[in-house]
Amino acid sequence: MKSNDPNLILSMLRELSIRNGLIIALSGRTPDELLEIVNYISSNIRKARYQSELIEVAHTLIDLYSPAFGLNKPFDDTCKRLLILVENECALTEFLMEIKGEIESAMSLNGIIC
User: Rg of the chain over CA atoms, in angstroms?
Assistant: First the structure.
């Protein structure tokens, strides 16, 4: 992941996924390489246009490397931070959906069509 362009990296990850190459591309990585990938995911997962692909990459990483959790503290800590980010993002999305529902309800009571 030499490029700092998140769009280029996302395009590469998307293409790997389409071609069923994501597992192969993520397999056999060193802890330092995994840290780079998890840090990229953590930095970009809040961006709506990146979320679906990055969630897929995160799930693939967990599936591949869950047996190794507990063996490398920096990797474990980075994964825990990613988990917290994802949990916070889910809570925020749930909150925003509730607000959207309340707004739509209030608007329909007032005869405003969304």
Answer: 18
Please answer whether residues 61 and 33 qualify as being in contact, where contact means their C-beta atoms are separated by less than 8 angstroms: no
In order, the DSSP letters of 36-101 are HHHHHHHHHTTSHHHHHHHHHHHHHHHHHHGGGTTS-HHHHHHHHHHHHHHHHHHHHHHHHHHHHH
**What b/e sequence results for 24-40 when a residue is b if at least 16 CB atoms lie within 10 Å of its CB, and e otherwise?**
ebbeeeebeebbebbeb
Give the model confidence (pLDDT) of 94-104 as tens digits.
999 999 999 98
Return the domain boundaries, the chain.
6-109
**Residue 45 near residue 81 (C-beta atoms within 8 A):** no
| pLDDT tens-digit map of 65-103 | 888 888 889 989 988 888 888 888 889 889 999 999 999
